[in-house]
């Protein structure tokens, strides 16, 4: 079984454009490619796990989402930091009802674990919201919140009590790699 880093997309790897529907608006978070490269260098599989409720809400369609996904993956690959895979939840509970895949649900993580023989208890769960980190508690992995300008204060307080918080994705990765070495 291999280790993975389950990475949120919007607000963690790229700046949150709130229902991103045009590849020209993709802006990488400073240091994100360096952090992903450090994971790859350590043998950790970087996997994106992202809620994309804009699809259910009609802000973009599945084809547009795929163009954005491919563009994000290409930018990381071009920077020498290829992502292993991307999983997304296209649902919104007000439109499609409840689902198992919408974070903090475990559906996307379970699929990635099955698809790539991942040991979730040895994996990193990170993002800019509580919902990105909570699955670490269910799997026994390492959860760390990386606040963005949109992170609610209550999510930061929760992370400081229940998991961990870091000032950047690079710091989160360094702390995760140190945790593995213990």
What does this structure look like?
With 182 residues, the protein is α/β, with parallel strands linked by helices. It has one domain (4-181): 3-Layer(aba) Sandwich (Rossmann fold). It has eight helices and five strands, in the order βαβααβααβαβαα. It has a five-stranded parallel β-sheet, sandwiched between helices. Strand 1 (4-7), helix 1 (32-41) and strand 2 (45-51) form a beta-alpha-beta unit. Helix 1 runs parallel beside helix 8. The longest helix has 17 residues, at 62-78. It is globular. It starts with a strand and ends with a helix. The relative contact order is 0.19. The model has no long low-confidence stretch (mean pLDDT 97).
In short:
The protein has 182 residues and is α/β, with parallel strands linked by helices.
Itemize the secondary structure elements and their pairings:
Blueprint: E1 4-7, H1 32-41, E2 45-51, H2 54-57, H3 62-78, E3 85-89, H4 93-96, H5 107-116, E4 124-127, H6 130-139, E5 142-145, H7 153-162, H8 169-181
Parallel strand pairs: 1-2, 1-4, 2-3, 4-5
Helix pairs in contact: 1-8
For the largest beta sheet, what order do the strands appear in spatially? 3-2-1-4-5
Amino-to-carboxy terminus distance: 19 Å
- Please bin the fraction of helical residues: 40-55%
Quote the average pLDDT.
Answer: 97
Gyration radius from CA atoms, angstroms:
15 Å
The CATH topology name reads: Rossmann fold
The CATH architecture term is: 3-Layer(aba) Sandwich
- Number of beta-strand segments: 5
Low-confidence stretches: none
What is the general shape? Answer: globular
How many H/I helical runs?
8
What is the CATH class?
Alpha Beta
The H-and-E topology, N to C, reads as: EHEHHEHHEHEHH
Question: How much strand?
Answer: 5-15%
Query: How many structural domains can be distinguished in the coordinates?
Result: 1
Q: Decide which structural class fits the backbone.
A: alpha/beta
Determine the CATH superfamily.
HAD superfamily/HAD-like
Q: Main β-sheet, in a few words?
A: 5 strands, parallel
């Amino acid at each position: 079984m291999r280790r993975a880093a389950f990475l949120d997309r919007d607000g963690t790897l790229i700046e949150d454009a709130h229902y991103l529907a045009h590849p020209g608006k993709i802006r990488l978070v400073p240091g994100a490619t360096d952090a992903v490269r450090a994971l790859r260098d350590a043998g950790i599989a970087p996997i994106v796990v992202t809620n994309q409720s804009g699809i259910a809400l009609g802000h973009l369609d599945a084809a547009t989402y795929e163009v954005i996904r491919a563009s994000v993956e290409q930018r990381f690959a071009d920077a020498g930091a290829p992502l292993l895979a991307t999983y997304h939840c296209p649902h919104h509970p007000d439109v499609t009802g409840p689902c198992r895949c919408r974070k903090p649900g475990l559906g996307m993580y379970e699929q990635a674990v099955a698809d790539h023989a991942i040991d979730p208890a040895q994996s990193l769960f990170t993002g800019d919201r509580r919902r990105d980190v909570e699955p670490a508690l269910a799997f026994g992995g390492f959860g760390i919140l990386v606040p963005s300008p949109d992170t609610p204060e209550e999510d930061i307080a929760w992370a400081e009590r229940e998991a961990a918080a870091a000032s950047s994705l690079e710091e989160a990765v360094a702390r995760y790699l140190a945790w593995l070495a213990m």
